[in-house]
Amino acid sequence: MRIAIFGTGGVGGYFGGRLAQAGEEVVFIARGDHLAALRNRGLHVESLKGDFVVHPAQATDDPAHVGAVDAVLVGVKAWQVPDAAQAMRSLIGPETFVVPLQNGVEAPTQLAAVLGTQQVLGGLCSIISFIAGPAHILHTGAEPSIAFGELDNRPSDRAEQLRQAFARANVKVEIPPDIHVAMWEKFLFIASWGGVGAVTRAPVGVVRSVPGVRQMLLEALHEIIQVGAARQIALSEESMRKAMAFIDSLQPDSTASMQRDIMEGRPSELEFQNGTVVRLGREVGVPTPVHTFLYHSLLPSELRARGRLPLPE
Length: 313
Prior knowledge:
alpha/beta, Rossmann fold, 2 domains, 5-stranded parallel β-sheet, 5-stranded mixed β-sheet
């Protein structure tokens, strides 16, 4: 397959790198020092699943130079999705499909608003990884896995073709029976863990072992289940059990991506994780006191990172 990776960060770099390593034709969309390093020395991935290098790596900052591809994997941050949808138009042909891999549940709708519903699948991934340096991706935790599917949950040849490509790359891959439930199950643990981790500024080993903090985490999970149920998303107490089992399985020093961004003073996905829980809960009349606390406690840091809240003199 000819696959474009739009956003070559910790997610796009890892999964795109695995596809390229397996022989798929992968083009990385990147910019700045990251792009220069990709062109000059290739993509270097340090991983718990084995280190590898993709060299030479096809990379550009101009999607118009690439033309239509079979599939686009969207690896940008959640707040960048609307702009990315506009920027990737030249990658989209009649048969092209787009798979968002953001934390959150609203990226498919945002992409479909620009590109058309027919071009968009639902998608999610699980990995703890980040950019360690230009063209250098570091995978430090979680079994890398990816899931995607048609938004109406019908079987499709294109989804199966991409599944087979990831299987050839030895990446754990699934087409779930209900992609919306799968996306909300990811949202369930990432928004709760990320928010609690960012407020406490503690790694997951502390979050899950201090009784009061663990209880706050459990209450955050329960709120998302209630919001999902009110929006006809079939989450369950089993979803909550699975989320906690995943959190309990992580390396004790693991941190969520939103947590790292907030702690390091960078713009984060706060609005698209805890902020989304609060907003969607308000829309369906479901109280979300824990996520409201997390969101408003973290909002000043987020506003400062975005230059919208000046530091006191």
